[in-house]
Amino acid sequence: MLPLAILCGGLGTRMRPHTLRVPKPLIEVCGEPFLAHLLRSVARAGVRDVVLLVGYLGEMIVDAVGEGAAFGLRVRYAFDGELQLGTAGAVRRALPLLGDRFLVSFGDAYLELDYADVVRRFEEAGTAGLMTVYPWDGGEVRPNAATDGVLVTCYDKEARPPAVQYVDYGLSAFRADAFADLVPGEPADLGYVNRRLIAEHQLAAYVVGTPPSEVGSPAGLAETERRLQRLLP
User: Fold this and answer.
1) pLDDT for 97-106, tens place per residue?
2) Does the pTM of the predicted model rise above 0.85?
């Protein structure tokens, strides 16, 4: 299984006042930090090596997770530093810990999919990146992606149907060279990386049937609490 980078450095402004005291991944869900549920789920999926990309209140995450032994993982950390680096900038800083190929997900999303199958598809595609997407159901979450069934052909948060009919699910796979043009230590967004790979026909698509659970919004937190209550023993 490839190493997994989990983005945990955001300010979590939509989840205030919770995130005035703790970083978003440590918001309590079903009696413990959301990140604990997330780390156990990726361990069950076969992941063994995790790098947490931390920034805002990052030391609290280090204190809560440590080296990851309690979750059956090896956990390491990459800190943004004084400047928030954005999603791609944070991954760029963590490349020495991640190697030539790796997965990327978000610290506020609980994903229920076959990680090994995503890696298999990525390896078969031979592309510099892969994005997981799910079909837009017409709900409040806006679609932002299009696919021809093999490649992602559009990624645009401002586009509207029928130009886009899928939503970014939250798990990606990359080769390290996908970040080669980013300046170390400068902020950058994964959207930039994804759009460049699309232009180069280098972003494979992996379609997931249903949306993820997330704690990035009050409504998402409530729904995630209900879902995890059903899943927990």
Assistant:
1) 999 999 999 9
2) yes
**Torsion sign, CA atoms 121, 123, 116, 192:** negative
* Token digits of residue 198: 């699309």
Query: Quick one: which of 91, 95, 166 has its CA closest to 134?
Result: 166
How many structural domains is the chain composed of? Answer: 1
- The alpha-carbon radius of gyration of the chain (Å, integer) is 17
22-28 contacts: CB < 8 A, separation 24 or more?
Answer: 22/57, 22/60, 23/54, 23/56, 23/57, 23/58, 23/60, 23/61, 24/107, 24/108, 24/215, 24/216, 25/61, 25/107, 25/108, 26/57, 26/60, 26/61, 26/64, 27/215, 27/221
CA distance 143 to 134: 9
Residue 151 per-residue DSSP state: B
Report the CATH number that the domain containing residue 79 is assigned in CATH: 3.90.550.10
How far apart (Å, rounded) are the C-alpha atoms in residues 165 and 170? 16
Q: How many CB atoms lie within 10 A of CB 202?
A: 20
Q: 73 is in which domain, residue-wise?
A: 4-231
